[in-house]
Design goal:
About 60% of the residues lie in helices and about 5% in strands. The protein is mainly α. It holds the Pfam family OmdA.
Length: about 80
Amino acid sequence: MIRPRHSMPDDVAKALKTAGLRRHYDARPNYQRNDYIGWINRARTAKTRTKRIAQMLDELERGGVYMRMPHPASARKT
């Protein structure tokens, strides 16, 4: 099964830039970036979309987590 590729929506790009997290987003594997965008795009309401963008930004800022699951490869080095 081929997974659909999702392009970056303007509101997500703006949120990443405003939060200063684009480099953390770009450092994630392709499948994670694609999954985040697809998940955000599937939101049925603006409220849900906003919550999903906020979750993505939080996970990128904290590092070490992806879709509320541990992701050691993205953990911040102290």
